[in-house]
Amino acid sequence: MPTSLTAIKSRSLHGRVRVPGDKSISHRALILGALATGTTKITGLLEGEDVLATGEALAALGAGVEKKGADWIVHGRGVGGLGAQPEKLDFENSGTGARLMMGVVAGQDVRTIFTGDESLSRRPMGRVLNPLKRMGLNVEGEADTLPLTLTGTHDLVPIEYELPVPSAQVKSAVLLAGLHAPGKTTVIEKQPTRDHTERMLSHFGAEIAITHENKQTAITVTGNAELSGKDVTVPGDPSSAAFLAAAALITKEADITIEGVLVNPTRTGFYETLKEMGADLEYENIREESGEPVADIRVLSSPLKGVSIPAQRAPSMIDEYPILAVVAAFASGETRMEGLGELRVKESDRLASTLAGLKACGVDADAGEDTLSVSGGKGVPGGGRIETHMNHRIAMALLVMGLGAENPVTIDNAAIIATSFPGFAELMHTLGAQLQETET
Ligand code: S3P
Predict the structure, then answer these.
(1) CA angle 325-329-333, nearest 5°?
(2) Which of 392, 396, 422 is nearest to 409 (CA)?
(3) Span 435-439, mean pLDDT?
(4) Can you tell me which atom of ligand 1 is nearest the CA of 28?
(5) How many DSSP H helices and E strands does the chain contain?
């Protein structure tokens, strides 16, 4: 039986809290640990279902992955050294896990079947398979959705590849495969996407060169690389912190601090946008951890105004549009978001589910093929019962809506939240938010 969760109007959210580790960095830390020689110690790994599925896939391929106290230890097998032959690998709900691991499997001497849940089995994989096939990955059949039977090889060839969509997952898959090919593999991106793979490859000792020319970035990795195991501290996930920041802004008398959040500029479009909307939000105690910038983020309740968000900002806040749309409902005037095409191919069509959620709560909103407009500041009735469509971010965004709306908001499936944010409801309770579970 799925458990539904109801959010009730709340006020005076207070406290200093930490959110779980960054999802993107957690996947990458496990993967690079497995491709390194020696031992990698990961502190603060996100123990969400997506990341654990990647850990299990790496273990099935022959890496040692174990929890020791609060840390995770990965015993790597070296680049190209994942020699076990699992019949299948199940990535559950995780697009990042499946796509990055396609880049890894491309360079191993292994034939295996990639599978996932219903949502992942609908998502496009061609964007990753196309460049990987050019490098030498064998894909059985014509389909570009899971399940897929893939055979890797120790004879990959390096390529130069211009990203047809601004996707860090595609970039990362090609770079991970490139580690296994002789010579240099280059990915060219016209719009910057999250750069954790590049940063972490360099942390693990790979040779990475990054050049900027004619508004394009070229990232080159030198293959037949030798990575060595490292310690990695995973900072708090800004995409998870976004729900707490939004809750503080749209409720009365809030003053919260979220400690140790990743503030890499390729990830902070949401926070920049909030400041433009008038949010009382500060980065405090900015520092660096494992090659990534980190800060404590203090957020107070604030009156907000609608803004226009340009399409170029989309890659730096791609996962934050559902929660931004919720914030916009509480801001005066119109908020217009452009360049949202990629939202249609996330865990569910996030543009459609965001619009449906807003409307179910009585908010005036409209969507085009890749745009969303929200007319805010007219009062938010709430009262909706939301179908989450196996989408963790829709679930959390609409619960936050319920904390500020006049009437409670209920989501149909609370379990999906553990995909990226285990302990979400408990953490919100410690801040003073009212969330109630009900069996359905
Ligand atoms: C991710 C990249 C983004 C993002 C996803 C995680 C990553 O996807 O939506 O949650 O870790 O590389 P795309 O790069 O496909 O847009």
Answers:
(1) 110
(2) 396
(3) 87
(4) 11
(5) 12, 24
Per-residue pLDDT tens over the stretch 256-286 = 999 999 999 999 999 999 999 999 999 999 9
Backbone angles phi, psi at 180, to 5 degrees: -95, -5
Catalytic residue among 231, 319, 349, 412: 319
Alpha carbons 385 and 357: distance in angstroms, whole number: 8
- Torsion from C-alpha of 88, 56, 90, 84, nearest 10 degrees: -10
Q: Does any ligand 1 atom lie closer than 6 A to the CB of residue 319?
A: yes
Confidence of residue 290 (pLDDT cuts 50, 70, 90): confident
Query: Per-residue b/e over 145-169, b at no fewer than 16 CB within 10 Å?
Result: ebebebbbbeebebbebebeebbbb
- Report helix, strand or coil for 244: helix
85, 113 contact by CB (below 8 A): no
Is the CB of 168 inside a 6 Å radius of any atom of ligand 1?
yes
pLDDT (0 to 100) of residue 274? 98
H or E segment to which residue 27 belongs:
helix 23-35
Q: CA-to-CA distance for 406 and 361, rounded, in angstroms?
A: 10
% residues pLDDT > 90 (the chain): 97
- In this prediction, residue 438 carries a pLDDT of 81
* 167 Cα–ligand 1 center, Å: 6
Residue-wise pLDDT tens digits, 388-415: 998 999 999 999 999 999 999 999 999 9
Q: Residue 139: what are its φ and ψ, rounded to 5°? A: -120, 120
Which tokens belong to 374? 């929200």
| Model confidence pLDDT, tens digit, residues 176-203 | 999 999 999 999 999 999 999 999 999 9
At 147-164, the pLDDT tens digits run: 999 999 999 999 999 999
Q: Is 319 a catalytic residue?
A: yes
Shortest-distance Cα residue to atom 9 of ligand 1? 319
Beta pairing class for 255-262 and 14-18: parallel
Residue 160 contacts residue 186 (beta carbons within 8 Å): yes
Where would I find the beta strands (DSSP E) of 45-87? 64-68, 71-75
Atom of ligand 1 nearest to the CA of 315: 16
CA nearest to 171, candidates 140, 217, 204 = 217
pLDDT at 257: 99
Q: Decide the pairing of beta strands 88-90 and 64-68.
A: unpaired
CA distance 419 to 52: 9
Compute the distance between CA of residue 100 and CA of residue 131 in angstroms, rounded to an integer: 13
